[in-house]
Amino acid sequence: MPQYTYGLGQLVLVPLPNSAGVRTTPVMVGTLQDVSLNIDYAETELYGNSQFPVDVARGKAKISGKAKSGQIGSGLIASVLAGSTTATGRKKGIYNEPIQFAVNTVTVVNGATYFEDLGLINTATGLGMTRMPDATPQATLTASQYTVSVTGVYLCATADGNPLCLASYSYTASASGKTTTLTNQLLGSSTTYVLELFNTFRSRDYGCRLNSVTVPKLDIGFGQDSYGMADIAFSAYADSTGTVMTFYTED
Q: Can you list the pairs that 142-148 forms with residues at least 24 positions away whose Cβ atoms lie under 8 Å?
């Protein structure tokens, strides 16, 4: 019976043991949109005095591929950022939180874990206000100027008359999410994976295994009216036994 394939199946990156012999968690590339695999051989042609070659010799070979995922998580990001570290906690952004000044001061909701100012808009004018250095005394602020402390306390000028403003900022959520941090690594540093791709269609299985894979590229795209997508590129090479890849089919 002929074997057909339909759909994408499941793609998993399985980290090879590190120098200490430790394996880390496999990375399941979720909500797959597409996967492609390219096996490319270079050929050298021998010509005489005629138009077509009299012999062809196969030269170097390369295996590469791409996958697109609708899920953007720390595991996928870390698979590309070799040498990165992942920890619990994250920064969260707040956009246009309404804040009402009283006696020229106000504290944002997440002031206790405030991280970074992302701008302040005066709703009366619809214009962004100008941030001044933190040490600027409130009494010296002029109209449309403000300061903000490391604890999310905003000060505005008396001339602004205690306006209603929209504050944008980021804060630390230490108990949720993940933060992946990349530091500058030495040339040659990368993480090596086994790539596994399995699919079943009409009760017939198909699979592919690449024994040594690196992931040199990650593109993350966002659209105005579309889901964010993560595109990864991978390349394969021979493992320590000389094995490059294996295919699994029903016949």
A: 146/120, 148/114, 148/117, 148/120
For residue 113, report the phi and psi dihedrals to the nearest 5 degrees: -125, 30
Average pLDDT score, the chain: 93
Q: Token match 């017939």: residue? A: 204
Beta bridge partners of 10: 198
Report how far apart, in Å, the C-alpha atoms of 161 and of each of 100, 117, 148, 149, 155 are.
11, 22, 17, 20, 12
- Residues in a beta bridge with 120: 167
CB 141 within 8 A of CB 132: yes
Q: Provide the pLDDT for residue 19.
A: 67
User: What is the chain's percent helix, strand, coil content, to nearest 5?
Assistant: 5, 55, 35
- DSSP strand E in 79-225: where? 85-100, 105-107, 114-122, 127-128, 130-131, 145-148, 153-156, 164-181, 193-201, 204-223
In eight-state DSSP terms, residue 247 is E
Sequence-ordered alpha helix ranges (H) in the chain: 74-80
Band the pLDDT of 189: cuts 50, 70, 90. confident
Model pLDDT for residues 70-93, shown as the tens digit of each residue: 998 888 888 888 878 899 999 999
DSSP 8-state code for residue 251: -
What architecture does CATH give domain 10-84+187-248? Roll (2.30)
Count of CB atoms situated within 10 Å of the CB of 219 = 12
Q: Where are the domains of the chain?
A: 10-84+187-248, 89-176
Residue type, 174: S
Lookup result for tokens 């001044």? 132
